[in-house]
Every structure is written in structure tokens, then in C-alpha cells.
Design goal:
Blueprint: H1 2-13, H2 44-47, E1 49-56, E2 66-74, E3 80-87, E4 93-105, E5 108-113, E6 116-128, E7 134-138, E8 145-149, H3 156-168, E9 177-178
Antiparallel strand pairs: 1-2, 1-8, 1-9, 2-3, 3-4, 4-5, 5-6, 6-7, 7-8
Length: 181
């Protein structure tokens, strides 16, 4: 119950962008009857660095966020630190949240955030291109999903490939929203 209260509080503080559909805390964006697979050849050392969120499924804790970035760094124990930054439309920082991603299997991360106690989310890297320039991250429960890119602008071919990965893993592409950078 405590987890739910914290998530509801975070969601209540978010202000959506104009015309932004804001998903509910328990909204599901993928057909959970369809298998989902993580990237078997995932290399955490190549994943570190900055990623720009170019598309996402609506989640309350990101409502109204633009210019979203995720910065990963290697920790001595083999896990990754993560810093997510949400920006306002004018580019100013709206909020940040620091966390940790434990690697629990190939391409499988168990993520927790410092200010959200008792909550650990399964984020799976579903695909990353050979150059580690574009990545698709999803959740087995289907409540979230992202397309990330190393630069704010993603080439059309990699965006198409990323969407195909989401579709293959049962995600509803009609609910995917592009994120202004």
C-alpha cells in the first residue's frame, strides 16, 4: 500500500503536455499473452552514457516531460547507476531522479530509484542496434516502454526498426507517443 501511495503522489504532481494522453498507473500497453524477449547479447559497458528518450508509452510519472534523458554509468559492483532527467518545453530541468539498475539476466535490468522506496521495476532491453545508437526498453508486465537514441534525432530506419521490435513483443504501436526533444 505504501508503494501505491508514493506512485499516486508522484503521478498527481505531473502536468501533461497539451494533447498528451496520460496512462494510468496500471495501464498495459502490450499483449501479455505474447512472449517478450530481452537482448541476449546485451553488453552493459556499451550501454553506459547518455540516451535521449525519443518515444514512450504514457506513464504518469513522465506526464509533461520533454527532452527526457537517461544517463547510465558503471558501478564497481557491475550494476549501473541511472539518472533520469525530465525537462520543461523551454529546456529547463523540471525534475531528476537517481537510481540503480541491477543486471539480473541478459538484457534484463531490475531498476530502483532512491526516492521511491520498496519499488523495483523490471526493465528489459529488448533490442539495441549493433552500434549501440538506438535501444528499445520494455517491461514484461507491459506497463511501460521506451525508444532511446544516443542523439535527440533518430534516423527513420532505426525508428522503424525500434517500432518493429515493440510490435514483435506485443506492444500496441498506436499508443506510442513521440517525445519532443
Amino acid at each position: 500500500m505504501k508503494r501505491l501511495s508514493i506512485l499516486l503522489l508522484l503521478a498527481a504532481c505531473a502536468k501533461p503536455l497539451p494533447d498528451e494522453q496520460v496512462g494510468g498507473l496500471f495501464e498495459v500497453y502490450r499483449d501479455r499473452d505474447q512472449p517478450i524477449a530481452s537482448a541476449a547479447l546485451f553488453q552493459p559497458d556499451r550501454y553506459v552514457g547518455r540516451w535521449y528518450e525519443v518515444a514512450r508509452y504514457p506513464v504518469p510519472f513522465e506526464a509533461g516531460c520533454t527532452g527526457v534523458t537517461a544517463d547510465y554509468a558503471a558501478l564497481p559492483d557491475g550494476s549501473l547507476s541511472v539518472l533520469n532527467t525530465c525537462r520543461n518545453a523551454d529546456g529547463t530541468v523540471r525534475s531528476t531522479i537517481q537510481g540503480r539498475a541491477d543486471i539480473v539476466g541478459p538484457g534484463r535490468l531490475k531498476v530502483s530509484f532512491d526516492n521511491v522506496p520498496f519499488v523495483r521495476a523490471d526493465y528489459w532491453v529488448l533490442w539495441v542496434d549493433e552500434g549501440y545508437r538506438t535501444a528499445v526498453v520494455g517491461a514484461p508486465d507491459g506497463r511501460s516502454g521506451w525508444i532511446l537514441n544516443r542523439t535527440p534525432d533518430i534516423p527513420a530506419d532505426r525508428l522503424t526498426a525500434a517500432k518493429e521490435v515493440l510490435d514483435f513483443n506485443g506492444y500496441d504501436l498506436n499508443r506510442l507517443m513521440e517525445v519532443p526533444q
